[in-house]
Structures are given as structure tokens and as C-alpha cells.
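#data-curation
PF: Archiving a pair of folding outputs for the training set. Convention for this channel: one message per protein, sequence first, C-alpha cells after, nothing in between. First:
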Amino acid sequence: MGQPKNPLEVLSLDQLRARKSAKWRAFGDEALPLWVAEMDTPLAEPVAAALHEAIELGDTGYPSSGPYIRAFCDFAKQHWGWTVSPSQVRPVRDVMSGAVEALKLVGEIADTVIVSSPVYPPFFKYPVSAGRRVVEAPLGPDGRLDFEMLEESFNLRTTGGQAAYLLANPHNPTGVAHTREELEKLAGLAADYGIRVVADEIHAPLVYSEARFTPYLSVDPRGYAIHAASKAWNLAGLKAGLMVAGEEAVDELENLPPEVPHGPTHLGVVAQTAAFTSGQPWLESLLTGLDANRKLLGELLAKHAPEVKYTAPEATYLAWLDFSAYGFTDDEPTPGVETPVLGPAKHLLKKAGVALTPGHPFGSGGEAHARLNFATSQSILTEAVERIGQSLR
């Protein structure tokens, strides 16, 4: 059987506007929503078949996660050459709640969590909700890990207790796929300063051909990694995630609260098991389409908004756009707007009818930036960038 059709070119704009998910409801029927990390695709056929079978059977009870764990371990071995034992893995509700549970295993209330900004906004919110304080060790000017900054932050960890480092691997929003050499250097620094690392690896299956995903735990047996099929197969509404402990951290899993492994939904487990088991052809077709879109985005920006700085990501379907040449400054949230839009994103929503994710919540380095989700059809992407260009002129 050949490769499935590019899933980004299956659904029409009218079909997408019929969706009731946050992406398509938050900004009304006129805006083109290229903001939250949700793709404009139908479900992969094996995933849809598994869900249909469950519904037809009335199979909507409590989750049984054993097949899910085995499917992930098999996928990791086949896709990344990474051998993971099921004894290292525990189900969690989703990636961010799993990351918080890992942070609890390696630290205490009031400890510090270090993040490399600009970074996924929940990296700031979730640890704080768990009683930690978050400090930034910003990325370098090239959007990659700044090891001088990291060492400085690790060295200062003793103020207010111990510290952990929360890593995005690949990085959201810059789309950097950290190299093995970078991760080995990070692991060495962490060992030198007694820092434990928790890696959010939800975008791991979404890496393009010029780069390679390196599992963090393949260089650090003391760390934790959190995985899910939700980003790569568009399953964010079907909650299920997996916490993976490094080989030297497995004993700590005994301290995981007993309710944590019961967090995933049954249909989330069913869907993500099918994705890891049978979703590879669909994923390959998706990556071909995303690769074409990230290149098209560069061409469109060069034509319609040439002063927007854009580096094609090595991973993810997210583009980190720098609008600083246009003189934008971040301002206060608009009163009465449920999802605040700051800086260039506010301008583009108002003047172009294009919804991007504002850069401000990503922390230092997010000023005058916005994040664009290019996991859509080429016609929608083209219209969106044309609108952006017109509004900037």
C-alpha cells in the first residue's frame, strides 16, 4: 500500500470551520487561526478505526495502559533506536501534568525550575501551580541552548533550595532539534551541579530530514522524559501521556502518587496506541506535507513580509517569527478578551484577521515575536501570509 495522501490537503476551509475545538472557535468565523498547536488534518485511518471500534462496542470504561506502553517502547526502538523497558514507563494524564509529577519526584516545594526561554508558556505556569519558582536561562541568539547561561543558572541554584531543569526537546517555539552533542553537554553540566532534568519530548516524532531526534534519556540515566502521540497525530483532545524514567531513576517511580497512572482517558489510550502501532505511514505523509509548508512559508514571507525574520524549524510545525523590524512593542492585554493578544499578534488579528500566538507569554526573547502554526493547507497558509503582508504595508 502506498503512502496516504497528504493529510494537510484533505479538509476544506468550510469543513475546518465546522470544528468545535479551541483553534476554530476562539477568534470567530472570519479569522484564519494559525495559533494553537492543533493541525488541520483528519485522523489517521488506523486511529479513526480504533476509535470507531471502541464506540461501536461501547468500550468507554477505564483505561488499560499496558498495550499503550508496549506500543510506545516498540515505536521508540524502531523510530529512534532507543531501547526503553516497560518497567521505566508510567501512564500520566498528559505531557505537562506528567512533567509536573516528574518535577515533584526530583525536588521539593519552593525548589527552582530552570527553563530556557523563549519557551512553551505552560513551562512557566505548571511548575508555579505546583509550588515551584521558575527562573529563566534564555536561549542564545541562534535560538539554541546557551551553555554559559545554563552554567550560571545551575551554579546559582542553591539560593532557595535545589533545582531542576525543564527541557523542551525539540524546542517549542524555535523548532530546534537539540543535537546529541548538545544534550551530552547539558547532561554533563547537570551532573556537575546536581541538577535533575525533565524533558518534554512531545514533538519528538516531528523532526525533518536534516536533523535527528535524540532522546534525552539516552545521554542521562538520571533524567525523566514525557511522551505522547498527541502532537504528531493531532490527538490533543484525547488525553494520554507517558512518563519515562532514566535507568538510574526507575526506583523513584515507587514514590509516584497512586492516582497518577489513572489519569489518561481510555479513548486517549486507544487512539495513541493505534498511532504508535500503525500510524507510521500517515506520519510520513504528514512530514512530507509539513516540510513543503515550512519551505513555502519562507517563500511567502520573503515576498509579502520581507522584514519578518524566520528560520525554518528543524522540528515541529511551529514557526517563530520576529516582527521587530516593524516597530511592534508588547502592550497590555485587551480588556474583555479571553485570550489576550499582544504586540504583533494583536495587530495581525485586528488588521489581517490572522490569529497567531503572541510571543510575550514565551518569556524573555518573546518580545515583538509571534508563533505561527503552519500545519494547514497551502491555500490557507498562502492566504494568511498575504493578509499579513497587506496589514504590515
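PF: Second:
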Amino acid sequence: MGDEGAWLRSLVGDVTDRTPPGRPMSVQDHARALRPLVAAFATDVADRIQTDVPAYAGEPDGRRRDVIAHAVEQATHRFLDTLDGLPHRDRGVDEMFQAMGRAEASDSGDLAAMRAALRLAATVTWDNLRRANPEQPLTDETRGQLADGLFGYIDHLVEQAEKGFAAGRRAIQNDRGQARARLADKLLTGRHRGPLDAVDPQVWAPPEWVVVVVSEPDEQRSIDVATLALDHLVVRHDQRVAVIADAKQTLAVTAAFEAAGTRAAVSWPVGPKLVPSAYRWARRALDLVRRGVIPEQPLIECRDHRTQIWLHSEPALRQRMCQDMLKPLLAETPNSREILSQTLLVWLETRDSAPAIAAHLGVHAQTVRYRWKRINELFGDDLHDPEFIVQITMLLKASVPLWQAGDQSDFERFREEESA
């Protein structure tokens, strides 16, 4: 590499010879004198960077060294532009360092190496300027101007690199976010066909167990989707926010919905291949809250309501079975229908005695006996058929909460079919 300061000492000596007697060299004198030797200086600095900054190491005559030398040369010229006081063309240095910052966002993931390289460039430059001409040292004023200008300019270049780096990270995150949203949509709808272990790990590394958290429709505006998307698969789907998360991070995800005041349902943990099912369960749980089957609460734990989610998995089938198997109940008056269905369901679930059922319902045992007599009149020998008992138990468990919540659709359908 040779004597790094020799070229500068020689040049400053020439400028000194041409400086009128009695007038010390000015900052402008230094800047104009340095122009012809910028290329050699840039080569020296590039060599030092490749030697001292491991991230930029490479062949001394390779492309990387040429890129570094070009950047140093253009930045140095631009620095001299700020010193000599003359108008100069736009060299595109800011844009170049922003582009370098964007490249670092993709390659290294941080700016540590570039900051180190710029600090080294500043140190080498200042050492050369400071030691250039021992016979005629820089005045304190000139030295101060050069130091302020140099280190201020280095700070400016760092800011440009940081600006480019931030833009690069945003672009990467945006691209990654779009890829993650597309993957989330395919997983939720069951349209993902490839093996999950083939998914780009930068997009998603499938955990062993996942949960699906789903917001109420039209209640997602206050959810911090951007923050959730940093660690989980997040997509707006069917007017909902849906999150596919590692089951180990369930509390962190549900806390975000609760903090936003948005009702959500969370599935129990499943393997990633069962995401479409978990999504259906969570949506069904929210629907059952709206219909009054599941009590209203900020967070719906699907695990706590698996029976109702299962029983309501086929609404059309429940409706048809209701019309076929509960026809005697549907024909009763509203008051009779309510008390008989409650009594029958308690008996089917407990098989307790009349006094025990009465205690459960808060009525007299004789009242239960009367009701049971009426139930036997309605269903007769079917109450001794094991298959009928199983089906009517599930049917009443699914239907009675609907009726109690005010859903009259079963009775309206019964009247329509009876009058047809």
C-alpha cells in the first residue's frame, strides 16, 4: 500500500509553493489541490477497508474493491465540492449511499460493516490531512474547518445509508408480508398444496402446533396488524383479521386483540395441516356468540365450547333433524315447548330422579312428574329407543340454547311445512 500520506504531503507542498507569501493555506486551497489525487486516495482507502473490515474482504483487484474505491472516490469529490466553494455538478452520491444501504438490508441485515468502513475512511482521511505538511502545519482555524466538514460529511453519508437501509427493510418486510398474507390465505382456505417444509423459512417456519385467532367481522380496525405480522401469519379474510400463530405464543396474540377491545375466537392447538378446520371452528364460535348459544365475552376459547361447535357444524342437518324428530315439541305452545324441552334435556343429560331434576330446574318434584307425563305422551316408545335417545340428546343440546336466545326459525319453518 505504501506511504498513505506521501501523495498528500507532496501535493500540499506544491500548493504551499504557490500560496502567496504571508497568506496561510485555506480550506479552499486544500480542496482544489486534492482534486487530481482523489483516485489514488480512494484506492488507498479501499485497500484499508478490505484489510480492516472483514465483511468487505476480498481479492485486492476484485470487483468488490473496485466498487468500494468508486464509492470513496465519488464521496471524496463531493466532500471537496463542499469545501472549495465553487459550484459543482450533482454527483449522485446521496443516491449511491442510499442504494448501498438498501443492498445491506438484503445482504447483511444491518449497517455495522458500512458504519465501520465509513469510520475507517474518516480516520484515514483525517490522518492524511493532519500529517500532510509538517513544515507548514494547518492553522487551528483551518484544522477545525476541515475536521468539522469531514466528520459532518461522514455523518451525512451514514444518514443516507440509514435512509436506504430503512427503505430496503420496508421493501423486504412488505414483500415478505405480502408473501405471508398469501400463504395465510391459502392455509385458511385449504388451497395450499405444497409441503409445508418447502415454504421459504424467511416467510414462515411452520411450528409443530399452531392456533388460529379470528376477529369478529368489521371489528378489526383497531388491531395492530403490522405488529402482529412481524411474528405471525396475518391476513384480512372475509372482513375479519385472521392470525395463524405458534401455539406457544397464543397469549401474546390474544392479548393484542383484547388490548384493542376486539372480540376474537381462538382455536385449540392443531397441526399446521389442520389450519382450515381451526379457522372454521373459530368462525363458528363467533357465530354462536352472535346467536346467543355461547355467552358473550371478549375472547372465545373454542376449547371450552367444543360440543356446541361440533353440534352446529352442519346447520342444515340440525334444522332438518329438528323438523323430523322434534315435531311433537314444535307443535306445542311457546311456553309448553320451553318447559318441556328444558325438562327433557336435563333428564337426558342426568337420568336423575324427579326430585333431583326439580332441584336442578328450581321447581316442585310434582311439576317435573307432570311434565314427564306430557313428554311421554309426545314421544311414546321412542324414549326407549337407544338410537333415538342419542340423537335427540345431541339435537336438544344444539337447539335449546338457540330457542332460549330467541331464535324462532325452527318454529317458523315448522309452521310453514305444516301449512304447505
